[in-house]
Amino acid sequence: MILIIGAGLAGLSTAYHLQGRPCRVVEKEKEAGGLCRSYQMDGFTFDMTGHLLHFRQQAIRALVEGLLAGQLQQHSRRSYIYSYKTYTEYPYQVNTYGLPPEVVRECLMGFIATLTAPPSTLKPEERSFKQWILESLGEGFAKHFMVPFNEKLWQVSLDELTSDWVSWLVPKPELKDVVNGALGVKDKAFGYNPSFLYPAQGGIGVLPKAFLSGIGDIVYGSELMEVDTTRRRATFQDGRVESYETLVSTMPVPELIRRCTDLPKPIREAAGGLRCASVYNINLGVAREHVSDKHWIYFPERDYPFYRAGFPMNFSPTLGPPGCSSLYVEISHQPEQTVSPATLIAQVRDGLGRAGIFRPADEIVVADVKDIRYAYVLFDRHRARALPAILSELESRGIHSIGRYGRWEHTSMEDAIAQGKQLAEKLRAA
Ligand SMILES: Cc1cc2nc3c(=O)[nH]c(=O)nc-3n(C[C@H](O)[C@H](O)[C@H](O)COP(=O)(O)OP(=O)(O)OC[C@H]3O[C@@H](n4cnc5c(N)ncnc54)[C@H](O)[C@@H]3O)c2cc1C
Questions:
Q1: Of 71, 250, 392, 403, which residue is the least packed, with the fewest Cβ within 10 Å?
Q2: 25-84, pLDDT tens digit by residue?
Q3: Three-class DSSP category at 399
Q4: How far is the CA of 115 from the centre of ligand 1 (A)?
Q5: Do 42 and 32 share a structural domain?
Q6: Strand order in the sheet with 2-5
Q7: What is the pLDDT, as a whole number, of residue 190?
């Protein structure tokens, strides 16, 4: 029997693609979806922060378009950076027109200096994220956007992070594009997500639900507590004990390792050193329509506690009552740090007011805070050294750890689905 831990997209996709081979999915929550869930509150539908579909793999796009036939809408991205009391279109690097002239000058001069600097001799995993930013984009872009924004998001110095994950997320532009951007000339779309798909109704949670009809055996409300990897036995909080031939785990890998009773000490210690940033997701409903015309906005400046705010009703108007707006706001924090929901909501209201998005008379009709404990995996030097040994030790014991937190990586919904599909195909062929 193949036992799958977690009914997020990675676990669901694995079960779906096993195509009837004996398997059981066990999920600790009362419903499927993991981070890709939606929930209703007082007439609003919220996701666990913004979850937009960007595809790079045609096979996964076709799968999702088939599962959600007729339900998806395509949108051209309207995302901006708010700084110096100005909106700069994303990506910042090619859109600096409109920022204070001194800022534009520093960005341009810094970028030009990178073009004549000698190329780095370090391997990506040895080069820090900060070095990568300085060498690829230059001092101006580093100072005015990349460093303050990323330090707010990752909650650590960028000297501590490696750069092996950045290239697909942070596009390196050509000089012509940077100059055009400084002059306000637009001739092409940039970035990893110039357009995105999103369900017309119901929020992103309709996607995991669409997998369910292809999956026979799911147990909800049952948390994996202990794994005896030698006897291949898993024990759950509700008392159930499952024997398995193969275990597919999509739970965070440090949690899995903590719950395996018989792993070597160096592996347990290596997993204990894996770090992540957590995110407070503050979801708001406001009694005024169109509080913003944008899809989402990045906030690099320290004056604002949040790093991003999005406006779901601008890409799916049915997510709230007519005459209202909804927002998701994201504040990163160290996992061990806690702030009360009331304080977070007050900080968000104040910050959005100072940014000119909220007006003093705006009535917040719904406010809800979710704490996403595992949000952004830190790509530090310890991860680069420790992770391959952890994953191969697990594989040697019949455990495949997959998904965003199973592989301890910075990946998307598409990647979670692709990993589940790939693993199921391998297990079917075995
Ligand atoms: C702030 C933020 C914004 C994001 N925005 C986007 C976006 O716009 N677009 C995009 O494509 N991706 C986005 N992502 C990434 C996306 O959410 C993930 O890639 C994807 O949902 C991961 O799916 P998964 O199945 O790997 O993990 P998860 O969704 O975490 O699923 C793991 C499942 O395991 C269950 N579980 C955990 N422990 C146990 C246990 N002990 N026993 C039983 N079950 C357990 C959990 O409850 C969960 O259901 C975002 C992520 C974050 C943090």
A1: 392
A2: 999 999 999 999 999 999 999 999 999 999 999 999 999 999 999 999 999 999 999 999
A3: strand
A4: 39
A5: no
A6: 218-219, 23-26, 2-5, 246-249, 399-401
A7: 62
CA distance 343 to 365: 17
The pTM score is: 0.96
Which tokens belong to 426? 């391998």
Is residue 2 within 8 Å of residue 22, measured between CB atoms?
A: yes
CATH number of the domain to which 328 belongs: 3.90.660.20
**At CB < 8 A and 24+ separation, what contacts does 344-348 make?**
344/280, 344/282, 344/369, 345/282, 345/284, 345/369, 347/305, 347/306, 348/282, 348/284, 348/305, 348/306
For residue 415, name the pLDDT band (cuts at 50, 70, 90). Answer: very high
CA of 105 to the centre of ligand 1 (A): 41
Are 255 and 157 found together in one domain? no
249 and 313 both lie in a single domain: no
What's at 378, amino acid-wise? L
- For the cut 80, the answer to whether the pLDDT of residue 343 exceeds it is yes
Which residues sit with their C-beta closer than 6 Å to ligand 1? Answer: 5-11, 26-29, 34-36, 49-52, 223-224, 250-251, 279, 330, 372, 375, 403-405, 411-414, 416
Q: Tell me which of 248, 376, 412 to substitute to probe ligand 1's pocket, judged by most ligand atoms within 8 Å of the beta carbon.
A: 412
What pLDDT is attached to residue 123? 76
Total domains in the chain come to 3
Rounded CA separation 21/3 (Å): 11
Neighbours of 394 (CB within 10 A): 24
For atom 4 of ligand 1, which residue has the closest CA?
Answer: 51
How many whole angstroms from 404 Cα to the centroid of ligand 1? 6
Domain-located, residue 123? yes
- Average pLDDT of the residues of the chain: 95
Q: What is the CATH number of the domain that holds 29?
A: 3.50.50.60
Q: Which residue has the tokens 């009331």?
A: 342
